Model the fold of this input.
Amino acid sequence: MKDVAKNQKTITSRGIKFPHDRMVIPWRQRKLLRNNRYEEKESRAVLQNLRPEDRVIELGAGIGYMSSLMALKVGIRDVHAFEANPRMIPFIENVHAMNDVKGVTIHNAVLGDHAGTAEFYNRRDYVASSLAPLPTDDDQTLLSIEKIEMRDAGDTFRTIAPTALVCDIEGAEVDLLPLCDLSSVRCAIVEMHPQWVGSAGVAKVFATMTQAGLTYHHRGSQGKVVTFRRDW
Done:
């Protein structure tokens, strides 16, 4: 476990501590964390639907919130958290260290239709960093373009064989989920992004889940956070 700086300023949310880093957590997110409302709908779905014995793939690890919640509040001991942004990895590791989180493996990688590398656009505004170039990119906004690992989605799911999936990847779910082998998954919690993918994109995600044998679970869904379950 990495050393945790003593006396560092923290924010506590649902009993989980996070470094008070204004460069990583903007003021609005800090307020939501303090009020236990950060990722509120996704958190509720995770707490209602996941089990301690689950093996989880998390797509889009962010600040390490969901992986910490799953480990500390659900008691899951086998989480594979994938995060594309290399700048976030030390922050997530710090969160896990200061909360004594066990059983989470962090992968600085993305999933795709083949194994190889992908370009990650590292911007001064970390929230705007992404796998795609923007028309606004220039010397003032773009810090670097980094090569990150891309793993074959189907192979990754078959190797890990998750029983649960937690996915928040800002619209990329439409193209990525059809590539994943969901045969071992009994529960999938997906945050939809209809503002970017439209109704056709939402329909494609539902069709992917239906084809995999997972059905919409209304009690575990709220707003854009949708839960799919398999009757086992």
User: Anything to note?
Assistant: Residues 27 and 33 are 10 Å apart (CA to CA). The two ends are 37 Å apart (CA to CA). The helical segments are 27-34, 40-49, 65-74, 88-98, 153-160, 173-176, 194-211.
